[in-house]
């Protein structure tokens, strides 16, 4: 888990964060995929109140698909949290926002953990 605390529940002494709600799914594609649909809004803006967004990023991409600005937007829209199968950045921002960002692979985070 990336936020609200990058520490495990046992290390931080707090209960683990749990999120639930209807799913909003995002399948990211390579920019070169000419056959991919073009959404009317940025995927971060497609979040819904109480929803949990699941994002799948294609393997091999070096940039992060979720960051602090997107968490700010999702929290403003009332989303319950985000689950990312890909790279995440701005870990400290998610923590400061107290917005749940769960990452399927701990090997793909970018950012600095808070002290």
Topology:
Blueprint: H1 9-12, E1 23-27, E2 52-56, H2 68-76, E3 81-85, H3 91-97, E4 101-103
Parallel strand pairs: 1-2, 2-3, 3-4
Helix pairs in contact: 2-3
What does this structure look like?
Helices cover 17% and strands 16% of the residues. By secondary structure, it is an alpha/beta fold. The protein has a domain at 21-30 and 50-105: Ribonuclease E inhibitor RraA/RraA-like (Glucose Oxidase, domain 1, 3-Layer(bba) Sandwich). It has a four-stranded parallel beta sheet with strand order 1-2-3-4, with helices on one face. Residues 6-10 have low confidence and may be disordered.
Core attributes:
115 residues, alpha/beta, Glucose Oxidase, domain 1, four-stranded parallel β-sheet, 3 helices
Low-confidence stretches: 6-10
Tally of helical runs: 3
Instruction: Give the radius of gyration.
Output: 14 Å
Strand order of the largest sheet: 1-2-3-4
SSE string: HEEHEHE
CATH topology of one domain: Glucose Oxidase, domain 1
General form: globular
Mean pLDDT: 82
Strand content: 15-25%
CATH architecture of one domain: 3-Layer(bba) Sandwich
Largest sheet, in brief, is: 4 strands, parallel
Number of strands: 4
CATH superfamily of one domain: Ribonuclease E inhibitor RraA/RraA-like
CATH class of one domain, please?
Alpha Beta
